[in-house]
């Protein structure tokens, strides 16, 4: 499974997952024009949207208008349609734990905890290779147990000790704690998870103010023994196919 971080963070989120047979786009939180510089949207088997916030859904109206298959929960669609004059179909609506085949992928959506309308995470497995991934972009906590996962793509938004001393206003700090996954919670999640099949871990949606990328990578690799990947702000490109994941050497 090839995972390509096109962009990740509060300015936009978009990640390509490719099993060598078909591609999924996880979130589309940049403009369509920027997205089209990185990938050919018509090559996608589907686009999975976690929730309606702009840093995850900005390109959705144009993707839909151009006939690209976009999938989201009913709550996310209702929020998106209320702000954009876009048509949707029943087949584009995902339901909690209702399995869906998209291209060569079997996708299982599940509800997560975020300040949005029916936000979701995704468990996806390639029918061709058997590789299995989990994507959770924005969630205050994760109450699921996953087995046999080979590729994890998980939020590591902030560290408590950094957030505590940051210059963010208290209301914003509270909002972050109530709607995003912390580094400490991520470590606990991995301690409680089945990592026996893990091949790669991808950390996404790191806060530009309240995270420490190198610390996070070092600690998660030490804890799990798996290669850890992120995207650095300095690695972003505005042409070509987009930046590749940055590996911890």
Can you tell me about this structure?
The protein starts with a strand and ends with a strand. Helix 4 links the parallel strand 5 and strand 6. It is 25% helix and 25% strand.
Strand content: 25-35%
Largest sheet: 8 strands, mixed
Strand order of the largest sheet: 7-8-9-10-11-12-13-14
What is the overall pLDDT average? Answer: 88
Determine the fraction of residues in helical runs and give it as a percent range.
Answer: 25-40%
The helix count comes to: 8
Beginning-to-end CA distance, first to last residue: 20 Å
Quaternary structure annotation: single chain
Determine the structural class based on helices, strands and strand pairing.
alpha/beta
What characteristic shape results from the CA principal axes?
Answer: globular
Radius of gyration computed on alpha carbons? 17 Å
Features:
14 strands; 6-stranded mixed sheet; globular; 249 residues; alpha/beta; 8 helices; 8-stranded mixed sheet; single chain; disordered C terminus
Quick rundown:
The protein has helices at 32-38, 54-57, 60-65, 74-83, 160-164, 170-179, 183-191, 213-224; strands at residues 2-7, 14-18, 23-26, 44-48, 70-73, 93-94, 100-102, 105-111, 120-126, 132-136, 151-155, 200-204, 228-230, 246-247. With 249 residues, the protein is of the alpha/beta class.
SSE blueprint:
Elements: E1 2-7, E2 14-18, E3 23-26, H1 32-38, E4 44-48, H2 54-57, H3 60-65, E5 70-73, H4 74-83, E6 93-94, E7 100-102, E8 105-111, E9 120-126, E10 132-136, E11 151-155, H5 160-164, H6 170-179, H7 183-191, E12 200-204, H8 213-224, E13 228-230, E14 246-247
Parallel strand pairs: 3-4, 4-5, 5-6, 10-11, 11-12, 12-13
Antiparallel strand pairs: 1-2, 2-3, 7-8, 8-9, 9-10, 13-14
